[in-house]
Specification:
By secondary structure, this protein is an alpha/beta fold. The chain is 42% helix and 11% strand.
């Protein structure tokens, strides 16, 4: 099986530094950071994930009923998966990667289809999913964080070149028309959310504001961060990405999505598509995190 080519050799405990685009320093960080970072590295707040397919958004909040779905996390939930599928080259057919068709494919395969909205969201202004609402910003930020990602994960030159190509494609794919607000697929944030609802996907309402002390990116296979345990044991919130789940998720997507004529003609391999999707999930996740986090925010890669 394809492996993620930028896995960390050892745990990395640092801050976002130059990557941090957030303007506010999280309150209470100095009092909790030492206890928290070691607990993360030791996996004290991890539980077995319910499956390998990345589905749940990396949001730092519990469901409104106080539960934790324990599904592997990816930035943006199904919107992050949609963007990863769009980011490959040669590309899938436009119809395959329309939000409606892509999400239908997931649902028909019995895979989780997940998105959320904020309790305070205003219909007609934003959807309440920061990934969906801020996709142009996330795409525009992706190329600027490639060098930082390369350094953090000690990526080699070939991996770095792949990251640059994928990041540039993500930027192009997320550019929206100033006149219509639509992306190159003729969709906007509202039509993407509607596609989830039409497929009877899970659209959950989350309450409360984001106040995370940091972000946790985990390569610990089969484990996900339990927000219930984290809150109970440490009384803190974190953004969390299950980077270990990106390869099995991309592998499943490549097996489900019909090849385009261009892909068939180019004899593109499964490994190539899986590698590009995996890289796209990592880059968009890190890009979204860097927009949400300040320079001082805790970053743990393990």
């Amino acid at each position: 099986m394809t492996t993620l080519s930028i896995t960390p050799v050892n745990a990395v405990v640092t801050t976002f530094g130059n990557c941090g685009r957030g303007v506010d320093r999280p309150s209470g960080m100095d009092d909790l950071i030492e206890d928290l970072k070691q607990a993360l590295v030791d996996g004290e707040c991890d539980e077995a994930a319910r499956g390998e397919f990345a589905a749940t958004c990396m949001d730092d909040r519990l469901r409104t009923d106080g539960t934790d779905p324990l599904l592997p996390n990816v930035a943006g939930g199904c919107f992050g998966l949609l963007l990863a599928a769009r980011a490959v080259s040669p590309a899938y057919d436009l119809s395959t990667c329309s939000a409606r068709r892509f999400i239908q494919i997931l649902a028909e395969a019995g895979l989780p289809v997940y998105a959320h909205v904020d309790q305070q969201f205003h219909e007609g202004d934003r959807t309440g999913c920061s990934f969906n609402d801020q996709m142009p910003d996330i795409g525009g930020n992706a190329p600027t964080i490639v060098d930082d990602v390369r350094t953090l994960f000690d990526a080699n030159s070939a991996t770095t070149e792949l990251a640059r190509r994928v990041a540039d494609r993500i930027r192009t794919l997320t550019t929206q028309s100033p006149a219509t607000g639509e992306d190159p697929f003729g969709e906007d944030k509202f039509s993407r959310l509607q596609a989830v609802r039409e497929a009877d996907g899970t659209v959950e309402v989350l309450s409360g504001s984001h106040h995370p002390l940091g972000a946790d990116i985990s390569f610990q296979y089969g484990q996900t961060l339990s927000r219930t345990l984290l809150d109970a044991d440490h009384a803190v919130k974190l953004f969390h990405l299950d980077a270990w789940s990106f390869v099995p998720t991309a592998t499943r997507l490549v097996g489900l999505l019909p090849r385009s004529t261009e892909q068939v003609s180019a004899h593109v391999s499964d490994d190539s598509l899986i590698g590009q999707m995996t890289m796209a999930m990592l880059l968009t996740g890190f890009s979204a995190l860097s927009l949400l986090c300040s320079a001082q925010t805790l970053l743990v890669i393990r």
